[in-house]
Amino acid sequence: MEKIKVSVLVLALAALPMSAQRVELLPFGDFERWSSRQIKESAIMGGEVKTLYTLGPEGSTPWASSNAWAKVSGVTKTSLSVEPDNGPDGRCAKLSTVFASCRVAGLVDIQVLATGSLYWGKMFEPISGVKNPYSNMDWGIPFTGRPTALLLDYKAYLPATGKLVKGTSFRKTEFPGEDPCQVMLILQRRWEDEDGNIHALRVGTAFSRIGKTTPEWVINHRVPVIYGDARNQPGFRPFMDLIKGENTLYAVNSKGKRVPILEEGWAPAGSPCTHAVLQISSGCQGGYTGAPGNTLWVDNIRMEYER
């Protein structure tokens, strides 16, 4: 019986066209390996020991997350919005939009909204405030591949109340809006000038937004990469444009300083890339704004290439 099964498999593979795609699992993209660290919060916060998770082994993984510890005016507080969970074939990642509340004397004095996010890069800790959150991160990793698409499995829960919340320290405001989950992969050609400024041209663009609850897992969700000027390609949406203004991302230059990534234009089709920015989030509204309760489970993140 086993020989028959093998023969059928060989015949099926032989029938595949020569142009079939090649698929590669990203490092730790099966979500089976995690590391953790324990951080004791300040006594004024309750003094509890909190566990924060990292995808992959601590210190040797391309992945960072929105899990972080902050130290403001000598007070230590943590935020947990990404953690391992049970998936369809082992472990997966659970990304949640949650409030990180600081309680003093039994009263909620500070409520900061955190969107669950996994990304390629690094978080600089401890975080000392809520101003310019993207400057606390080193976005992207060196990357020279030319994938045709990003593939992943996911399941989503969105309360879809039609309301968004902005929560930064002592202020919490509500206003109408939607907050779909987002998958983003951008390929860039970066270079640094003599003053240490980092410039970039956009080589490839891949975005997907998940705007409704999916009771079952969606398997092999494909997010195609658009090369060249994405504005002239089918499927372009305004949120896929160059990243500028208050959404500007940061990286560490050769002098060890955190500086903005100045994404200045679109690279011609066929241009090589030097870096990739990959981010998967339970929302898309930016720092400290979103829909509390949004939850995104992800598993089996892969890159698709031409064979």
Total helical elements: 1
Report the sheet with the most strands, covering strand number, pairing sense and barrel closure.
Answer: 10 strands, mixed
Number-wise, the strands total: 25
What is the distance, rounded to the nearest whole angstrom, between the alpha carbons of the first and last residues?
Answer: 32 Å
Helix content, binned percent: under 10%
**How big is the Rg?**
21 Å
Structural class of the helix and strand makeup?
A: mainly beta
% residues in beta strands: over 45%
What is the residue-averaged pLDDT? 89
How many separate domains make up the residues?
1
Q: Return the string of H and E elements.
A: HEEEEEEEEEEEEEEEEEEEEEEEEE
| Low-confidence runs of at least 5 consecutive residues | 1-18
By CATH reckoning, the class would read Mainly Beta
**Which CATH architecture?**
Sandwich
Q: Which descriptor suits the 3D outline? A: globular
Q: Output the CATH topology.
A: Jelly Rolls
Walkthrough of the structure:
The chain has one helix at residues 2-14, and strands at 21-25, 34-40, 49-55, 63-65, 68-72, 75-79, 82-87, 90-96, 98-104, 107-114, 117-123, 137-139, 141-142, 149-157, 163-168, 171-176, 181-192, 198-210, 214-224, 226-227, 250-252, 258-266, 275-281, 289-290, 295-306. The chain has 307 residues and is mainly beta. It has a single domain, classed as Jelly Rolls (Sandwich), CATH 2.60.120. Strands 4, 11, 12, 13, 17, 18, 20, 21, 22 and 23 form a 10-stranded mixed beta sheet that branches. Strands 1, 7, 8, 14, 19 and 25 form a 6-stranded antiparallel beta sheet that branches. Strands 16-15-24 form a 3-stranded antiparallel beta sheet, with no helix packed on it. A hairpin with a 2-residue loop joins strand 9 and strand 10. The relative contact order is 0.22.
